Amino acid sequence: MHTKNQNTPPPFPRYSRQTALPELGAEGQQRLHQGRVLIVGLGGLGSPAALYLAAAGVGHLGLVDSDRLDESNLQRQIAHSTADIGRLKVESAAERLERLNPHVRIHLHPSRLNVDNAASLFGEYDVIVDGTDSFFAKFLIADACHQTGTAYVHGGVRRYIGQAMIVLPGKTCCYRCVFGGDIPEEPGPPAGPLGPVPGVIGSVQALECIKFLAHFGELLTDRIFTYDGLSARARVVPVRRNPACQLCGTKQEPPVASGSPTERIKT
């Protein structure tokens, strides 16, 4: 792990617009300053989430990504620039975040999240932002967060559609409750998404992190926010915990799905 920046006390004028909000205030800002958020994936979702979390003054941001920037990423991955093509995404994103807010301490994890490092890494943070684009990674994040008791904000996009929800392990509906116990096949070759769609969802993910850390507002738990950019429609769909969920259920009848991340997570 590499660390950049010193986590110095934030200057009040920088955050004056949000501390003026009575629900947040100076006390909530201090909670943000003490907060630790890990962003897994610095792509279409992770980019806007990271930018808004840094701007809000979250004290510690962890960045996980082993990929290097490709030119085709730039249409939606706004934490990077043309000059960054070929660089590790964690490095180019860290530099952008430093320019945005030098008072945030940034922790770089330039490796791929896997079953051997997920739980130990997640235990260092208060909340995880799922900015990944594969079903295996999303199930892995859900399983590791359940194991460590770490809150996580799910986000997913495809073409013009996006969705988000926050999970408090053991207390609210989890990712497996909603999407089942078996990891589905990955979709075919990528088509989209249209850039602003992950921008909307990544912003929602950042907002949920801010509310969670600062202790205000109604969290997006037991509900999924969905957005259809093609029709400009948004809605919130209620969801409930599944008593037979393979991950968090109280009546777990079937074993955890064969080949799922849970079976192989190590601490």
Q: Could you characterize the architecture of this molecule?
A:
The chain is of the alpha/beta class and 267 residues long. It is 30% helix and 18% strand. The chain has eight helices and nine strands. The protein has a nine-stranded mixed sheet with strand order 1-4-3-2-5-6-7-8-9, with helices on both faces. Helix 6 links the parallel strand 5 and strand 6. Helix 3 packs parallel to helix 4 and helix 3 runs parallel beside helix 8. It is globular, with a radius of gyration of 18 Å. The relative contact order is 0.16. The C terminus is likely disordered.
Features:
267 residues; alpha/beta; nine-stranded mixed sheet
Q: Count of helices?
A: 8
- Uncertain spans: 253-259, 263-267
Structural class of the secondary elements? alpha/beta
Kindly estimate the percentage of residues that lie in beta strands according to DSSP.
15-25%
Element-by-element helix/strand order: EHHEHEHEHEHEEHHEE
Largest sheet: 9 strands, mixed
The CA-CA distance between the termini, in Å, is 17 Å
Counted beta strands: 9
Which strand order spans the largest sheet, edge to edge or round the barrel? 1-4-3-2-5-6-7-8-9
Radius of gyration: 18 Å
What's the pLDDT, averaged over the residues?
A: 91
The shape, in one word, is: globular
Helicity level: 25-40%
Brief synopsis:
The protein is of the alpha/beta class.
Helices and strands, with pairings:
Elements: E1 2-4, H1 16-19, H2 25-34, E2 36-40, H3 46-56, E3 60-64, H4 89-100, E4 105-109, H5 118-122, E5 127-130, H6 135-148, E6 151-158, E7 161-167, H7 175-179, H8 196-214, E8 223-228, E9 233-238
Parallel strand pairs: 2-3, 2-5, 3-4, 5-6
Antiparallel strand pairs: 1-4, 6-7, 7-8, 8-9
Helix pairs in contact: 3-4, 3-8
